[in-house]
Amino acid sequence: MKKKLLHIDSSPRKERSHSRSLSLLFREKWLDNFPEFDLMYRDLYVTPPPHVDENWIAAAFTPPTKRTIHHTQALEISDHLVDQFFEADYYLLGVPMYNFGMPSILKAYIDNIIRVNRTFLFTPEDKEAPYKPLVKGKKMFVVVATGDHGYQKGEILEPMNHLEPHLRTAFGFIGVEDIRFIYSGNDEFGGERLEKSIQQAIHKMEDEVCSFV
Q1: What are the binding positions for FMN in this chain (predicted)?
Q2: Residues 85, 86, 88: CA angle, nearest 5 degrees
Q3: Are 109 and 10 in contact (CB under 8 A)?
Q4: Which end of the chain is more exposed for a tag (fewer CB within 10 A), N or C?
């Protein structure tokens, strides 16, 4: 059976989006090097996941054997997203940084796939480790585009980067621990600064792909 790469875009911009263009380039490089992979693609702005509401919460925390038709309907999209997430072996996210965090559409996606008894178990009797991830052996690449620069580890704006810690925590909670980040910045400055940052991101992508050859 072929392995699968799930590519998720979360920028509302199209042609002007650096996270889209760079994640597409990463995808092309990956599939060129690993033709044994099949591609799954999801554009969160074409098929937006619903935000969690009262009906979703009631359904998610009702045991499957006791769910009504309304519960099932409330979780229909979430169930599909979780199934797709498990089907993939590797993940590729294209993410713009918005106000030091992620776009709300990506947060909605994450809220739909972090599900008790689907992607994690809650065992309150286990006082040492009540939460147990159910996603095993997956890897993730995150291509981030920022308006400024200096958000990476050890750089001047690292304390303002709430995107990377949030993604590491959320996906790590369900079991995705191997997450590689690739940054491009300087969109607000443009010109040579932007171009240099894009080229650095491309070199980083090539290094990440080659490291798996």
Answers
A1: 11, 17-19, 97-100
A2: 70
A3: yes
A4: N
How far is residue 37's CA from residue 99's CA, in Å, rounded to a whole number? 35
Which residues carry a binding-site annotation for FMN?
11, 17-19, 97-100
| Domains of the chain with bracketed CATH | 3-210 (3.40.50.360)
Per-residue CA distances from 117 to 62, 113, 123, 160 (Å): 11, 11, 10, 33
Type of residue numbered 139:
K
User: Per-residue pLDDT for 212 more than 80?
Assistant: no
Binding residues: 11, 17-19, 97-100
> How many degrees, rounded to 5, is the angle at CA 106 between CA 105 and CA 108?
65
- Can you give the C-alpha Rg of the chain in angstroms? 18
Write out pLDDT tens, residues 87-104. Answer: 999 999 999 999 999 999
- DSSP state for residue 186 in the 8-state scheme: -
